[in-house]
Amino acid sequence: MKYLHTMIRVTDPAKTIAFFELLGLREVRRMENEKGRFTLIFLSAPGDESAEVELTHNWDPEDYGEGRNFGHLAYRVDNIYDTCQRLMDSGVTINRPPRDGHMAFVRTPDNISIELLQADGALDPAEPWASMPNTGKW
C-alpha cells in the first residue's frame, strides 16, 4: 500500500491555498467537474509530491462545521520557530505554540488542525515561544 492523499472540504479555495503556501506546499494539479459542481485541488511539498492534500470545493454552499472530528494533518518542518513566525506574521493564530521546540498546532481558514513537528527532534526552547500560552483548541 502507498499513502496517496488526505482530503478536506474547503469553503474558500483561495484562502486555503494561501494558508498551505505559507506552510510551503504548492498546487500540483486541479480538476474542475462541472457536472458534479466541484473542484479538486491537489497540493504537496516540493520534493515530496507523492504525499498530497486534496482540497475539495463544492460549488454549492454547505456547512461543514468545525472539522474537529477530522483530526489533523501533520507536517515536519526544518525550523518550527521560523515556520510559526512566518505564519503569525501573515495573520495565522498559533493555537498551540512550539514551547518545547518540537510541536505546534495551527488551523486552516476552515478550522482544520495542522500539527507542525520539528525535523530531527526538537530545538532548544526559545522566547517568545517558551512562555506563550495556548490560544485555542488544537
Question: In short, what is this structure?
Answer:
The chain has 138 residues and is of the alpha/beta class.
List the helices and strands and how they pair.
Layout: E1 5-9, H1 13-23, E2 26-33, E3 38-45, E4 48-58, E5 72-77, H2 80-89, E6 94-96, E7 103-107, E8 113-118
Parallel strand pairs: 1-4, 5-8
Antiparallel strand pairs: 2-3, 3-4, 6-7, 7-8
Query: SS-based structural class?
Result: alpha/beta
Beta-strand share of residues: 35-45%
Write down the CATH topology of the largest domain. 2,3-Dihydroxybiphenyl 1,2-Dioxygenase, domain 1
Supply the number of structural domains. Answer: 2
Shape: globular
Describe the largest sheet: 4 strands, mixed
Spell the H/E element sequence. Answer: EHEEEEHEEE
Task: Please give the alpha-carbon distance between the first and last residues.
Answer: 30 Å
Q: What's the CATH H-level superfamily name of the largest domain? A: 2,3-Dihydroxybiphenyl 1,2-Dioxygenase, domain 1
Rg on CA atoms, Å: 16 Å
Model description:
This protein is an alpha/beta fold. It has two domains: 1-59, 2,3-Dihydroxybiphenyl 1,2-Dioxygenase, domain 1 (Roll); 72-138, 2,3-Dihydroxybiphenyl 1,2-Dioxygenase, domain 1 (Roll), CATH 3.10.180.10. Helix content is 15%, strand content 38%. The protein has two helices and eight strands. The protein has helices at residues 13-23, 80-89; strands at 5-9, 26-33, 38-45, 48-58, 72-77, 94-96, 103-107, 113-118. The chain has a four-stranded mixed sheet with strand order 1-4-3-2, covered by helices on one side. Strands 5-8-7-6 form a four-stranded mixed sheet, with helices on one face. It is globular. It starts with a strand and ends in a 20-residue tail after the last strand.
